[in-house]
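Researcher: Here's a chain I'd like modeled. Treat it as a single chain, no partners, no ligands.
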Amino acid sequence: MNSNQYSLPVFLASLALANLACTISVGGPEYPANPIPFSMEALESLEQQLTQAFDLGAESGSIKLQITEGQLTSYLIYKMQSQSNPPFDEPQVLLRDGQMQIFGKIHHGIFLANMAITINLGVDETGLPKIEVVSADFGPFPAPDGLDQAVNKMISEAYTGSLGPVASGFRLESISIGDGSMTLIGRIK
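Model: Modeled as a single isolated chain. Structure tokens:
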């Protein structure tokens, strides 16, 4: 028996199995070159900053809170780890040029694409965050239906979840973003 007779079928079967085990990257927007790692210290420092800001605010009536990219990225990673089916993986939050940029990786079958959402944050007349999706790039995949609502929900949950009980009576006055940090200024009613 000629062993070459079995070579092609074995090769094709091996190629098919290898293809099933792989993920094929199909591009998308450029993912940050230096990803921000998850840090429990960043989460703990965010919690401490919130407590200190509200303690000082109870005395003065005003609150100023500065949050870093590392704190927001770690918070988002932490929250997404608790979800059974997160909308994307490997989140990164960049705070640059007055905008929040959220990056991640989307899986669709064996395909993997980078995604980026650019958001303007402001304050509405009731003192809550006002969220405007400026752009959303999901690579070759279509933007999911209800993207605006999903982003609004995610940021609102982060806002209410992180400020939570200490925020009762808190009215946000301004949000400014730049150079890797976001500053929130508000008053206790």
